[in-house]
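Quick one, probably user error.
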């Protein structure tokens, strides 16, 4: 979703397209009127010509596909090694030939508990994790989030009374 001070919201993009496509006005003039660059105006006009009015809506910035994702067979091999060996990513990296950082991502993706929370003999979870239940997760990753921080107390220059 466009932020409040964006040059072109959905309404602004529709206005730009109407002036350029239907009123047949030059893109450079319309772009100057709306306070955007010619390249930006051409981008929205071309998107309208390719996709129609739905193409002017906001899109997520997350990638459509992930070509470098680890294959499922490798993930199964790592998870099986983790269950049988009960060791961390460094040892698993030596045994499976997969980089330790990739193993960490695979274990997180499949929500495998850390070794410190598991019984060393059986591998069953015996400890609660520190993850709190009050957690903020945005519904659409990649969207812009604004956090406003305000100082509530009056702290004099140089520190408070303890300084």
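Nope, works fine. Designed sequence:
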């Amino acid at each position: 979703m466009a932020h409040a001070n964006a040059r072109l919201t959905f309404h602004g993009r529709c206005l730009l397209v109407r002036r350029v496509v239907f009123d047949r006005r030059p893109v450079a003039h319309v772009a100057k009127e709306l306070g955007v660059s010619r390249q930006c105006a051409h981008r929205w006009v071309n998107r309208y010509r390719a996709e129609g009015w739905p193409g002017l809506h906001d899109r997520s910035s997350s990638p459509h596909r992930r070509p470098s994702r680890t294959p499922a067979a490798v993930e199964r091999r790592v998870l099986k090694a983790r269950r049988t060996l009960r060791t961390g990513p460094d040892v698993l990296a030596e045994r499976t030939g997969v980089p330790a950082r990739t193993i960490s991502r695979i274990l997180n993706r499949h929500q495998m508990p850390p070794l410190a929370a598991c019984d060393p003999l059986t591998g069953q979870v015996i400890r609660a994790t520190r993850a709190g239940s009050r957690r903020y997760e945005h519904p659409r990753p990649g969207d812009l989030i604004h956090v406003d921080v305000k100082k509530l107390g009056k702290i004099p220059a140089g520190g408070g009374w303890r300084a």
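The radius of gyration is 26 Å.
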